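Bug #77: duplicate submission created two jobs. Keeping one. Sequence:
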Amino acid sequence: MEKIRIVLADDHPIVLMGVTEFIERDERYSIVAQAQTSSELVELLRCEKPDIVITDYNMPGDDIYGDGVKLIEYLIRHFPEVKLLVLTMLSNKLILSRLYDLGVGGVVLKNGDLKELPLALDSLAKGNRYHGQVLQVTDSVVKAPLESMEERIASLSVKEFEVLRLFASGMSVRDIAQAQNRSVKTVSTQKITSMRKLKVDNDHALLTFCIGMNLI
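Kept job's structure:
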C-alpha cells in the first residue's frame, strides 16, 4: 500500500522530532521532509508534492511568505491539492474559525492531547475536515459593547487604520512600510498608536479584535 506523504513544518526541532516519531508509528504515513521556516516549507511543497502538510501557525517568516494568516492563505492559494493541518498554541475561537474559513483541513492545539494528530490525519486522508478539541475551546475575547468597539475604530486616523488593516491581513511592519513608501519607524509608531487606541496590548489581541470586527 502506498503511504500518505506528509511534509512537517515547525521552528522547534524537538517538536519536529516528537511529531515525526509519533506519526510514523502508523505505517500508513511517511514524513518525507521537514521545514523550520516558511521559505523552506514552500520550497519543499514544490519539490516533494506531499498529500498532507502539517504546519505550525507561528514560524519565522520572511518578506515573501510570512507566517500566520499570510502563510496559510499562500499555501491554500498555491497548493490547493494539498490538505493542510495547522498546529497552534492559539486558543481563540475567532482566530481558529478564521483558519477554517480560509480552507484548512483541520486544526490541532499544541497544548491538547497528541492523540488528536492521528484522528486528524485519518479525517484528512478520508477527505473530511477535522475539528476535534477546537470545538470545545472557550472564546477568550473579552466582550465589549459594540458601540464601544466601533468608537475605538472611529478614533483611528486614516493612515493608522490602513496600517492596522494591512497588518491584520498578514503583512509585516516592513512589508507595510515598503508598500506605503514610508519608513519602518513611522509604520511601527502608527501600529503602536492604533493598538493603544483599540485598547489591545499584543499582536494576538490585535488580530483577534480585527477578526471580530470583520476588518480583514
